[in-house]
Amino acid sequence: MSDKLFVGLGVTSVEDNGTLPPISRVTLMVDDNNAITAGDDTGREIIADCPFATQEMVNALLANLQGYQYHAYTASDAGIDPAVELGDAVTVGGIYSVVSRIEDDGTGYPSIAAPGEAELEDEYPSVGPVTQTFNRQISETRSLISKTSEEILLKVENELEGLSSSFSVQLQQIQSQVTGLNGQVSSITQKVDNITLSVSNGSTSSSISLSVGGVTVSSQTIQMNGLVTFTGLANGTTTIDGACIKTGTIEASRIDTDSLYVNAANITGSLTIGQLPNNVATTGDIPDKVSDLENDEGYQTEQGVVTIIDGRVTADYVEALGVRARYLQGETVQLLSSSGSLVGAMDIVNTNSGDGLTIGTNRGGIRIETGQSGNIYIRSGHGPFLMLGYGDTGSTAMCQLGGGPLVIPGASYGSRAPSGSGEYGEVYFQLE
Asked: Is this prediction's pTM over 0.90?
């Protein structure tokens, strides 16, 4: 009640229609089917239409009206201030009530009244009797529009089903959210420097965050359908089309693949190529150092391991149609026939002057041959030599022996001149 008026006995007649029970409940009708209420049914109920009603509004009204008793009256020809308004408090004929109705015939002395229950039902049939028992079912689904200095909120919710949707506009952000049962929530939040989309079911979640500095995608599973193209600031482009990835450079700590095809490979670090032995049962059995692959003699065992470190290739075997190298190092060079059988070998042997080299064959002979213009020259470090080819003159082919005396052991010559073609194991010289 905005103003309080005192009329007293300044009327022609006053009728006291009694006091109604105190107000115990306030109900605001959002629409024909939806309502928000507060209070109990011990007294009267105040019902009004308000499409923007909230529970906070209903609670505030009840706090102000609870316990108020409506005193019905009728006063004729009241001498009141012309500025009186409906809702003003008035004291008339010893009755303190409210001005609920004004009837003015132009004389300047209107009749005022606070109608009784039956009259209210007549005057305001859409509200119903003010003393009615609350029997309206609170709506399962309701909506609200809230406006404050800090926020504009639109919301629709169903408490029984646990569903709600809201749209909030604040100074620093705009947010929309849909909430379901079992912790299911989806939201979109827009701020001045980022936009975030998120979906969660309580245990797992997915989110996309867009900012000036980049885009962050987080999810248990990320699935993309169609052609995906990534273009960087350095004019680099990556295209993912089905199972095909086309790009310039791939940087990774590890690449696992069943088959790898490359036109060229430049490896700056350590490269280890291997196949696990058959007796490996656990990961603890897998060697993690090159030294673990070597036996007591410093050579790798036959475990199918190939290492390439600092330009050096270490392997058990190398099989190829051809090997081209500036240096070949090793203890044994074996020569195989076209069928793969061993024919001969060059080996390291122990001689009376230290480690030496031997050339041997398992079958057949040993043939050393040059082209028409080539010589064969064999020389020892002590000086003696054997040359087969052209001599110093370069015109006559010869067998030249020099660098020391020719010594023929006793077992190599006979005690007499041979007859005919000579005897086996004998050496003789014949002068012409």
From this structure: no
